[in-house]
Amino acid sequence: xxxxxxxxxxxxxxxxxxxxxxxxxxxxxxxxxxxxxxxxxxxxxxxxxxxxxxxxxxxxxxxxxxxxxxxxxxxxxxxxxxxxxxxxxxxxxxxxxxxxxxxxxxxxxxxxxxxxxxxxxxxxxxxxxxxxxxxxxxxxxxxxxxxxxxxxxxxxxxxxxxxxxxxxxxxxxxxxxxxxxxxxxxxxxxxxxxxxxxxxxxxxxxxxxxxxxxxxxxxxxxxxxxxxxxxxxxxxxxxxxxxxxxxxxxxxxxxxxxxxxxxxxxxxxxxxxxxxxxxxxxxxxxxxxxxxxxxxxxxxxxxxxxxxxxxxxxxxxxxxxxxxxxxxxxxxxxxxxxxxxxxxxxxxxxxxxxxxxxxxxxxxxxxxxxxxxxxxxxxxxxxxxxxxxxxxxxxxxxxxxxxxxxxxxxxxxxxxxxxxxxxxxxxxxxxxxxxxxxxxxxxxxxxxxxxxxxxxx
Length: 457
What we know:
18 helices, mainly alpha
């Protein structure tokens, strides 16, 4: 019979597995759909600009849902919110394949986004509550697993669409949901009773934030039809008003006071937004380009997109060891340089470029993803105290979704009516310019230990 420490380790491993099976659903569901966009255009008779709302609304719901569900997990219990998330994903995954119209599909995707958003904060909170030894390693595994799963989404989606059409992308969730539900039900401890004195949700802040983000989305999506001055002005005014509104709150939805006193952290969020603009522009733009212009089928597209996922997974553990030795800044410098190189190499792609050529070019971007994702996560914790970890992590995820919303807006502006190699090159130039900004922000970033954790300078 196994001794108690061995049983305890096995229980911890199963608990990590329960969370690990749930948390990748958000990144997988965000990126698997990319290969299905051309099929959805055919199915519902849409332009790329129309179908891009399927991406934008998912990320908008996720940007709102992550901090809301994180707060709810604190108020109502990790287990309840984790199980609620799984149930919402189950509901949406059942109904989405039956959508009678595109509007219905968007609605079911929004439900899916809120369900997915419940899993990461409640799952991470459960790990922090229940695992005391090697906690950082457990959290690191889950973070890396979550981020790299996004890179595999297009490849996996390509095979699913090839063999079962787009509804299979939603049905694919069920094995993960079932396994995670059973393990969480058995292993997660009962939630404690809610403290009556605990602060409630800042619903006015949630609504204000939602309106502001939605207005910015409308502004960026309007680029296809020209530059809308009034949408820019309204979005900017709402942003200023939201900042002042939240600054006066004792328990704000978005802790803007935390951002104001932590300049290094704020700039990391800005850089992470830029990282995700490039990453998701590639993840969503390239599959549609390969199918529309290079005339690849979904299976071939999935194989080519493996270049990003495969190299990202290979590089991540190497980046982790490098970060342990030298800190986050050196790997981030290499990662941002790889973004510039990879996007400039995309200018060499022509209408009849071979799949191998495109695979090799995208491999450079896969390498950059391996360094940037882990580098940004570890850089964040160099500048926050342990007490600020929860706030910092929630805003970090929100900044990821801000970047993805901007990426879908960029693609709608470039690929809205037609997808051509010239449009791909325009995207490459824009992403290269963003890469230069990322490099400048990395050069400006102090090394860990040069400033006090959480310092404002």
